[in-house]
## 1
Amino acid sequence: MRDLLPRTKNKEKLLKDKCKQDGFCKLENLNNPKVTDFIARYLEHCNPDSAFVRTDSQKDVEYIRKRSIEKGEERQLEMDGHTVHFDGYNDQARDKENTKFLLPPDKEIGRQFNSINKEKGLKEIRKYLENIMKGKEAYICFFCLGPKNSKFSIPALQITDSTYVAHSEDILYRDGYDLFKNRKFENEVEFFKFVHSAGPLEGGVSKKIHKRRIYTDLEANTVFSTHTQYGGNTIGAKKLAMRLAIKKASEEGWLTEHMFIMGVHGDEDRTTYFTGAYPSACGKTSTSMIESEKLVGDDIAYLREINGELRAANPERGIFGIIRDVSPDDDPLIWKTITTPGEVIFSNVLIKDGKPYWMGMGKELPEKGINHSGKWWKGKKDESGKPIDPSHRNARYTVRISDLENKDPNLENPDGVKIKGIIYGGRDSDTWVPVSESFNWKHGILTKGSALESETTSATLGKSGTRRFNPMSNLDFLSIKIRKYIKNQIRFGERLNNPPSIFSVNYFLKDENDEYLNGIHDKKVWLKWMELRTHKEVAAVKTPTGYIPKYDDLEGLFENVLGKNYSRKDYTKQFSTRIPEHLAKIERIKTIYKERVKRAPEILFEELEKQKKRLEKAKEKYGNYVDPENFC
Ligand code: SPV
Ligand code: MN
């Protein structure tokens, strides 16, 4: 059962009627009946008054920008090219509860994932979509995920009634009309398809949030999204495509990861590329945005083995980033891009006199303005009596990477970039050292990536914090069983001639007084150390959980990178092996895999067991907290 919608009876008439002669010609020129069949079916079913077909031409791109202002989905701000968009008050983040896989009765996907019987789910979403675009204009857009003309490229088709979605996608993704035009599809499954409608609007925002649904049909490579506007639920080519790409990658022997891609400068002209997976609020964007290094992508990476090497490409060409705490001191490059003329969409920030404001921007905010709650004033509370922040915690900016000074020249390289290191970053107050390298690929995937956790901050959940398990930081997007996902990762490494080093980082280690042990800029040093390690240019200390830096090397790097004196006392505090916490973590992770994951790979337990033995042996010899000196 692929799709419950019947074929359009008179396709040509329907397309001419909805898309007018001009749009019809653009579709005809694709010479791609599988694509136009799909479009016709959904135009007939969603029934917009008209539909605009976006080719790759500048004129079409501008039409969408202009319409977004005319329709009020975006408002022009004072600065040239800047606009603001608001999502509904209760539509400010990904809706995990209503994001489901449409699951055929003979398939299972694992207890971790939300799913609904396929027939039931398709019926429901089909009902929601029926005539949902009546009275509106639809936008038919074509994108290319990954660099063009490359092994990485995946064609993606978006049908939406939101100019905000279409405009965001124009900033975030490469044009794909030409890709569709030059490619013959045997089957609709060969391209990704996204059908979105914000549903009826009230005050410019989705009115029927209770009908918000994001349903993924993995067999058909189609995702439906209704009655929502927030980007993470609606921008098809982003997280909705990521779920499809994870499944596709699994079938084809490559990987789709929730990772940044960045180049770290080594000596002379050397640039060494890393990918990094960190759950949210663990430092992912701030790492990829370090001003002295180079950015390929901040969110998603496609990883392929090409001639025995690990190559990575960014399916995106833009950033949909959290704006909170973006300040001239901490994020000078983003700050510059979003405070100078150029194309930027702000979402869910505070607006006053045509200017955007957000929490943590490093200057005083106005006491009133317009935000995601409508008219806002200091002290305003919502219906439940909760104070409304001036800007939402998840307020965002949308920009092109090419508009950032730290853009990497290889963003569009059809072969991607060669990856020498993979970083897993967690928020962890008491276990992981600030930086550590695994013994080998398997050790890294299993004890670092698969054991990734993030701690909720003490401000929200009591002092000790709660740890959330998030393997490879990819849990929200997995569309295959965790067992399979982990096995794929292991197998992938086995195919590489010289697998990259796998590191863990932890920017949030604390001392016994609950004080952070590291400064915000120390990550710049860890990156340089990792860069050197991937070239085997520094030695390291072998501990039971991985290799850690030697004091002398860090002393030199702190001096060179930050102009800071790094004391041996700090080193000892930061890099001591905390054995009881490590042992507790191993037990925690084992329990999670036993209880929550069906038939977790045996190799995972074996590797954790080996680590446990090494830790216990060290404990016997040196006690609970072991100074790195002991391992030298
Ligand atoms: C994330 O939450 O991981 C994001 C933003 O990158 S969203 O588009 O909502 O997924
Ligand atoms: Mn993300």
## 2
Amino acid sequence: MITLLDYGAGNVRSVINAIEKLGETVRVAEGPRDILAAEKLVFPGVGNFGSMIHILNQKQYMDPLQTYLKADRPFLGICLGLHALFEASEEAPGLKGLGIFKGHARKFHIQQSVPHIGWNGIRVKQPSRLFDGIKGDEKFYFVHSYYVEPADDGVVLTFTDYDIEFTSSIQRGNILATQFHPEKSGASGQKILSNFIQEHRQVVVPKIHSNKTKLAKRIIACLDVRANDHGDLVVTKGDQYDVREDGAVRNLGKPVELAQRYYQEGSDEITFLNITGFRDFPLEDMPMLAVLRQTSKTVFVPLTIGGGIRDYTDKNGRHYTALAVANEYFRSGADKISIGSDAVIIAEQYLQTGQMTGQSSIEQISRIYGNQAVVVSIDPRRVYVDSPQAVRHKVISTQLPGPNGEKFCWFQCTIKGGREGRDLDAVTLAQACEQLGAGEILLNCIDRDGTNMGFDLELIQTVKDAVGIPVIASSGAGCVEHFQAVFQETTVESALAAGIFHRREVPIIDVKKFLQGKVEIRS
Ligand code: 1PR
């Protein structure tokens, strides 16, 4: 029996699912006594160090946790569950961690994008039972902006490289903790979890050692989901956002089944976009929550969900906050949420007033769950102009002239699934959202969506150059070469596609095979 410490934030559902998949029972600690009574304790965590410590104090978990850990009883910390073991974190100065290990969590100050999101390797420093059956060249899923710096090198179990070398797991006696998320790291992560659960695994050092680990470029399958005209929830796909064919909503399959297929085929992440979320409120549109719950039972890579994340008042006058919607999504198995229309409205207000209110969905959700959990989905389209001075937006000189030979364009933001253009450009939106606390940009492109013409590389690099957070390139993939182009001609961290995967024109496996040796990927 595994006792799971749920301090109320983040995606504990996927940890429970991953452990249960291994045939083990999970009991969620409901009070301090459950911690002391645990046979094996798992402390998963995403989010913000400060809010975690506040909750641990509030629930009176600090003392029992220290007692448990000082007695060297079996413990696995994940991500924030690793940071909690140290004295403090730069994420919340002045607040004390558990102090089981001397040292601090530091913020990344590096050239590459922060948060560090995606699949990276490990360099093993000591033998461990966690590595039974691990070859050594596997990649694991990371998502964090802070890393621990132990005062005692002897506790370092693995290092990982991301501009700098950082500690990606620790081990001392029965206390184990990883910066990466085994529950989101596919089959390799399942092995790590199973090795923690089964105490009698061999203590080994993996055979393969690398001198330096590399973050893989991610390939993401995207499922645009909505109810069709019969009320069934289907995966659909538009051409430049028009999802109807001969008047009916295109039906390309069932969301859970397709997500499972993409997981098996090697998708590094899966994104669900509830494309009518701007008009149907997600908490009334419960099937999406059911889709997440079901998917997270068998799909052990990160799940992002978008659509309808905003404040809402229902017909009975009951008010829901965007945070409440996000809470439901996280508790149903989402690792990240994606905000579309609301992000544009928030950014417009922020740019107009110059004030951060602290109340917007982006700010509230990133404060509790951490900025790595907040993706902003942008739906831009090109607007051609004659000169850079023609508008007050970020204008680029383009290699793809407009219909009247225009050599300049800007990228206009839209809301409500592309239905409404706004007086805001994609670059300014991305920068404003980063300042407000977004951790990643999902950059769609209405002009390219469903066209198979390839990604809009100009749009992508323009936005990427403007922000320090990771960017997901989306829209237009039509063949394997398009993925090579987006990774070699821009600096984005990941590429997303939909139509070619749904129609089985180009399976994910083929994309990965083609990129092997050309681009760092998770094989
Ligand atoms: O505005 O917060 O409720 O979120 C709604 C979300 O739904 C947004 O993320 C928005 O991008 C998305 N959305 C709204 N309407 C549509 C539509 O298609 N009519 N889908 C839509 C956007 C774009 C991509 C697509 C790629 C790859 N879909 O996600 O999957 O373009 O497609 P391709 O590889 O076939 O070219 P809110």
